[in-house]
Amino acid sequence: MTADDPVERDLDLAWELLGVQPTHPRIAELALRVLADQPERSSAAMALADHHHACDEIDEARRLFLQVAGRRDRWFTMAARALRTLELGENDHAEALRWAHTVLDEVQEDWDDWMQLGRIEARSGAHETGWRRIDDAVALCARTAPDDLPEALGQRAEYLLASFAPPERFAPAAEEAIRASAADPWVAMLLGWAYLAQYRFDDAEQLGLRLLREDPTDELSQKMVGLARTMQRIVEGAAEDDITLEELRNTGVMEMSWRQIRDEQLGIDLPSALVALDAVMPDDLRATLRPGAFPERPAEGPRVGAMVAKDLLTWHDGQQPGTGAAWGLPEPFRLMSAAEIIAMNAEIEADQDAHPDWPENEIWDQVWTDDAGAYLVVIAFGALVKRRPGHPDEPVAPSMADWIWDRVAAFGGTDPRPGPLPAPDAPGGVPAH
């Protein structure tokens, strides 16, 4: 066929549109016209599949990608890569991992294919394995495609963040990406919060000031600078409460702030979990919950709770007493109301000696009760524990958001958090040369 052939023109135009506006309806029209004339044309099927994927029409995109992969022609690797991306986006880590290995069975020299494998491993729950492979992929890029190195460094920072890398691991990667001019302003913002989580307050302040020069209205940058300066005053002994750095570290307040910002960016924070829970909650459970009604915290008087409590109470202001069994768990914990939390806090603060399980010098926010003296409590570093009189705290979940996501999964909803890794044999590492 010649370049003037109408089929070729339609196909070229479809791919051009994909590059600039992948959801444009003309793409499907053009690709289908090609396929009507040449049903086995893999390039047209791939263009149509990419369009469906961009339009979030996942089932049809998957069908077409699988159709192309089944032909085992020269488009096979591209189809396998597309399926790898699609399944990761659907949080099907096992399928994404299978397609990542399939790609590497065909091509071993592309640094990005190795990085995608590491990304999926880390998202699957094999954090250290995945993070090491991502680092190895950056090294492979430096050896074989040095012009791509800024892109590889930026991807590494992004993938470390998305796979829950701690600040001490994410921060150096983000710093290197920024030095290579590969990081966007959001990565720089997260780096600043990672500095705070590492108690590097001077570095956080300077980065925040730089971001404010670029966008003086950015609220997160303003908050970061303000918090950095507050922490500096505390460390210098100028704060009214005379809190030492060690006492501050023991609260985990900086780590919690980092995780909150990160989880919000990834869509796995507590408010996101509550939205997902609403979509799958059984009707009998929903009927036990009161409407959300968070009262304004008074200037004086007993505290209502921290941000976790506020998020929960804004969602639903407690649950009817004695209805905790509606959650379907072995222990019938139910959500407390703002009034109950305020009253309990006032009672504890009025006679601290009579409540030894609720120490004054520690962080705690009770949010659930079994109506028999036990509570689910958010403590330092955001962990959720079960607290019973006279017993040590028992771990329940890494955070309140994790507990809610567990409920979403139990009710049949989609859980976007990294999951346990299935255990296929994985290639040993990226090629040395």
Structure report:
It is a single chain. The protein has 433 residues and is mainly alpha-helical. Among the domains are: 1-107, Tetratricopeptide repeat domain (Serine Threonine Protein Phosphatase 5, Tetratricopeptide repeat); 269-410, 3-Layer(aba) Sandwich (SMI1/KNR4-like). Helices cover 59% and strands 5% of the residues. It is built from 20 helices and 5 strands. It has a 5-stranded antiparallel sheet. α2 runs antiparallel to α3 (42-54), α9 packs antiparallel against α10 and α16 (270-280) packs parallel to α20. The chain is globular. The relative contact order is 0.07. Residues 297-302 and 421-433 have low confidence and may be disordered.
Key descriptive features of the protein:
433 residues, mainly alpha, disordered C terminus
Topology (elements, then pairings):
Layout: H1 6-20, H2 25-37, H3 42-54, H4 58-71, H5 76-89, H6 93-106, H7 111-124, H8 127-144, H9 149-162, H10 167-179, H11 185-197, H12 201-214, H13 219-235, H14 245-251, H15 253-266, H16 270-280, H17 283-286, H18 307-315, E1 334-335, H19 338-350, E2 364-369, E3 375-379, E4 384-387, E5 394-397, H20 400-410
Antiparallel strand pairs: 1-2, 2-3, 3-4, 4-5
